[in-house]
Amino acid sequence: MERVYIFIDSGNFYHLVLKKLKLHEVDFDFDRFAKFLANGRYIIADGKGYYVGTVREKGDGHESKTAMANQTKLFTELAKAGNWNIQTSKLRSRTERIKIDDRVNNFKEILKKGITEIEYNRSREKGIDVKIAVDLMGGSIDKQFDTAILVSSDTDLVPAIDWIRGRKLTRIEYVGFSIPFTSPITARDESTKPTQALISHTDIQRVLVESDIRPFIK
């Protein structure tokens, strides 16, 4: 039977899929989703990889406490389901700014109030792509699996993928998404689309749409 390892880039999946559907990770059944991706193939021991940036509490903020509680709950559920390899990395925060112009809904009314830009804090994962690349390459070299199912559209993984495929160590199956979305802030089309670089650099390609995702919402 074909052996598979499933690599789920949690942050990438959240921004490309869950956020567009107004969901959080705790609202999604990752275990059933992994079995769906395997499609009857044998998932090796600890072969459901969940790669995620860990949430840190910021002062007395209710939002960060809720995020931490939700992440702890999700980790507990994955551990209970079994066969999950949870790899974490710290989230780094940075301040970003949006200039108020014609890309923003009702920008004239906002400008009349003297607001020319909006400042907000954004958290990003650091090192997750490295952890995925290391496990992807190490597992391929050791022949732990026949196919790596990659749920990530991070193009930083392309060099590792090319290295593996160039040596014919294992097959790489890319799982991309097509989710229509218009930003409520800028009114711009920010739809999720499969990444061409991952399509052209992998052996197998699957593109999932919203109707494929909905069955796994709790």
Description:
The protein is an alpha/beta fold. 35% of the residues lie in helices and 29% in strands. Strands 4-3-2-1-5-6-7 form a 7-stranded mixed β-sheet, with helices on both faces. The protein is globular.
For the structure shown, list the relevant keywords.
218 residues, alpha/beta, Rossmann fold, seven-stranded mixed sheet, 35% helix
CATH level 4 superfamily:
5'-nuclease
What is the CATH C-level name? Alpha Beta
Biggest β-sheet: count, sense, barrel? 7 strands, mixed
Q: For the terminal residues, how far apart are their CA atoms?
A: 30 Å
Mean pLDDT: 90
CATH topology: Rossmann fold
Helix content: 25-40%
The share of residues in extended strands comes to 25-35%
Biggest sheet, spatial arrangement of strands:
4-3-2-1-5-6-7
H/I helix tally: 8
Which geometry do the CA atoms define? globular
Q: Got a strand count?
A: 7
Q: What order do the SSEs take from the amino end to the carboxyl end, as H and E? A: EHHEHEHEHEHEHEH
CATH architecture: 3-Layer(aba) Sandwich
| Radius of gyration (Å) | 19 Å
Detail the poorly predicted runs. Answer: none
* Total discrete domains: 1
Sheet/helix structural class = alpha/beta
